[in-house]
Amino acid sequence: MSIEISALFLIIAGMVYLFFTEKLPLDVTAMSGLLLLTFAGYLTPDEALSGFSSPVFITMVSIFVLSAALKETGVARKFAAVLHRRVGSNQALAIIGVVLVAAFLSSFMNRVAAAALLLPGVMGLAVRASIPPSLLLIPLSFGTIFGGMAMPLSTPANLLAQYSLEEAGLAPFSTLAFLPFGLVAMLLGAVFLAMLGPKLLPRNQIPKESATGQDLPQLYRLYERLFALRVPANSSLVGRTLESVGFGNALGALVLAITHGPRQRLAPRGIDRLAAGDTLIVAGRISDFEAVQKCADGQSPKVVVAGEERDFDGIKHLGEFEILSTNVESELDSLEVAVVEAVLSPRSSLIGRTIREIEFRERYGLQVLAIWRAGEPHRTRLGNRVLEFGDALLLQGPRDRVATLMRDADFVFLSESKTESRQRAKAPIAIAAFVIMVALAVFKIEPVEISALLAVTIVLVARVLPAEQAYREIEWRVSIFTAALLPLGIAFQKSGAAALISELVVAHAGQYGPMVVMAGLCVLASALSQALDGAPAMVLLSAITIQLAQSLGVSPYPFMMAVALSTSNAFLTPFSHKSNLLVMNPGGYRAKDYFRIGWILSLIMFIMVMLLVPILLPFKP
User: Fold this and answer.
1) DSSP state of 50
2) Which helix H or strand E contains 438, and what residues bound it?
3) Cα–Cα distance between 354 and 554 in angstroms, integer?
4) CA 373 to CA 390: how far, in whole Å?
5) Which of 163, 233, 450, 608 has the largest CB neighbor count within 10 A?
C-alpha cells in the first residue's frame, strides 16, 4: 500500500470518527475533509467544488422546496385525514395504512419531512382509533424509509448512485429503476409490521381524547412536581413581580397559575405582581423551597441554586412563601390558555442551545413545563438543558401564541392543528408541479435535476411559497454535507484506493462468485448506514462497487442497486435515520425497541435485495 493511499485512509478514518461522534457538525466535518483532500493534492479545486454543481445537490435543494409547498398547501395533511376515514379502529389496517401513506409521500419528498408532516395526523389516528401511538410511530418512520427506496428523488443515496454511474461514464438508472424494489419493500414491510409489530413493539399509554389539557401533564408526570404556595399578608413579596422574585433563575421552578380570590390566572407573565393571599401553583422541587425556608428561619441547610450572581440576592424572599400543599392536581389549561406538546423539527434552529440561551418565553410567549427525552420526562431545572433533535416539549401559554407557533418550522406539533393552510387554494398547483417533475424525469424528456428545478420555478412563480420562505425551508446543512462528500469518490479513484480494495476483495471473495461479493457489499452498506448515514456510506462504497464489478467482469448495475437499497436498510437503532429519531420521544420508545423489531426487518430487506436484484438486473446482461 502506497503512502498516498495510506494517508487517504487516515483522512477518511478521521472523518468517519467525527461523523460518528459528532464532535463537529456533520457539514463542518465534510467541508474540513474536502479542504484537506484538496490541499493534500487528492483533488483539484474544480473537482473539490464539483459536488455543489452536481445534479445531486440541485435535486436535493429542489425537493426541500417542493416538500414545503406540499406542506403549505395542506396536501400532505389530506393523506392523514383520508387515512382516518378509511381504517376506522382496525389496528392492522391502521398500521398498513400508516406505512403505505408514509411510503407514498416519501417517494417524492424528503423522508424526514414526510414523517414530520404525518406525525400529527398519526397521533390523531391513535386517539380516534384507541391505538397506542407506539404501535403506529415506528411503522410511520419505517414507512418513509421504504418509500425512499422506490424513487431516486427523495433519497440522497439513490441520487448518489445515479451520479456515480454518470461519473464513471455509464448510463444512470432510469427514474423508475428503483420502483419495483421499493414497492416490494413497502408491501413486505407493511405486512410484517401489521402482523408482528403489535407483538414486538411496546404498548405505551393510549392518548385520551384531545391529547391536550390534563392528559399531557399526566403523561409527563408533571403532578409529581407540583405544589402550592401562598403569599402571606404583610410579606415583602407583596407588590413584587414574578420575574423579580426569581423562581426560575434561582431554583429552576415555574409558576403555572396564580389564584387571587375566585379568579385564577394561568401561565402568568413575568411582569405580573403578587398580592397578599395569592396562591401559586409551582412546578419544581419542594425540597428546595423547604431548605430556603429553613435559611429564612436562621438554620443553615445546604441549598443548591442555579443562575447568575445577581439572582442570589433575592433568594431569601422565597423563604417567605407559605407552603400550602405538596400534592396538587390543578387544571393547567382553559379557554384562553393551552397545554400542548411539540417536537423539535429536523432543521430546528434551537438544537444545541439551552432554553435560557434562547429566552424561550420572551421569544415565543410560552413556557416549557417539561422535556421528554429517551423515554423519560425532565420537569425541573430546564433552563440550562441543551435541546436535542427529537426532544418533545410540554408547553403552556395563550392559545393565540400556540396557533402562531404551529406555523414555526422549528417545531412539529403532535396534536393536529385546527388552523387552515394559508395556501390551500393553490394545492392543485403544488400537485401539478410534482406531476410535471416526475413525468419529465420518467419519460426522459429532461434530466431529474432540470425537472426538479422546473417544478420549483412553478411553485415560486405561482406564489405557492414566497421565495424567502423557500430558502428557509432548504436544509442547507444536509445539502452542503452531501455536496462536500461527493468528491471523496473522485479521490478514491485517482489515488488508486478503489482499485486496491477491489483487488483485495476479488482475491479473497471473488472465487465465490458475484452473489457473495454483493452480499458483502450489502452488509457493509447497511452497517455503515446504521453508524453514519446513507449518503456517506454510498459515497465511500460507490467507487469500490464499480471497480469490483469491472474486476469480476460483471455488470455494475446490480451491485450499485444493491448498495443503494442497503443504505436504506437502517432499522436497528433510533440514530440510524432521522425519521427514527423524530418518532422516538412521541412514541415513548427506547433504543432496544428499534432493535427488537429492526433486526428481523433488516434480514427481510437483505433477503429481498439478494433475491430480487439479480432477477431484475442480471450480472450478465
Assistant:
1) G
2) helix 427-442
3) 54
4) 8
5) 163
Q: Please state at what angle helix 534-552 crosses helix 3-21, rounded to 10 degrees.
A: 150
Give the dihedral of Cα atoms 239, 242, 247, 252; nearest 10 deg.
Answer: 180
Query: 569: phi > 0 → left, psi -120 to 50 → alpha, else beta; which?
Result: beta
pLDDT in tens, 268-299: 887 888 888 888 888 877 777 777 666 655 55
For residue 341, report the phi and psi dihedrals to the nearest 5 degrees: -125, 135
Indicate the burial class of 297 (C-beta count within 10 angstroms; 0-12, 13-18, 19 or more).
exposed
DSSP states of 318-358 as a string?
A: HTTSEEEES--------SSEEEEEEEE-TT-TTTT-BHHHH
> Cα–Cα distances in Å, from 247 out to 311, 364, 388, 530?
9, 19, 25, 43
Write the CA distances from 331 to 112, 259, 264, 267, 339, integer angstroms.
35, 12, 10, 11, 10
β-pairing, 263-266 with 254-260?
A: antiparallel
Cβ partners under 8 Å of residue 50, min gap 6: 486, 487, 490
CA-based torsion, 371, 376, 382, 384: positive or negative: negative
**Residue holding cell 427514474?**
175
Nearest to 266 by CA among 307, 214, 306: 214
Give the three cell numbers for residue 464: 405557492
Q: Which three cell numbers stand for residue 469?
A: 420562505
pLDDT tens, position by position, 34-81:
999 999 999 999 999 998 988 888 988 888 888 888 777 876 666 666
Reported for 301-310, long-range contacts at CB under 8 A and 24+ positions apart, including other chains, are 305/250, 305/251, 306/249, 306/250, 306/251, 306/252, 306/381, 306/383, 306/384, 307/246, 307/249, 307/250, 308/249
pTM of the model: 0.76
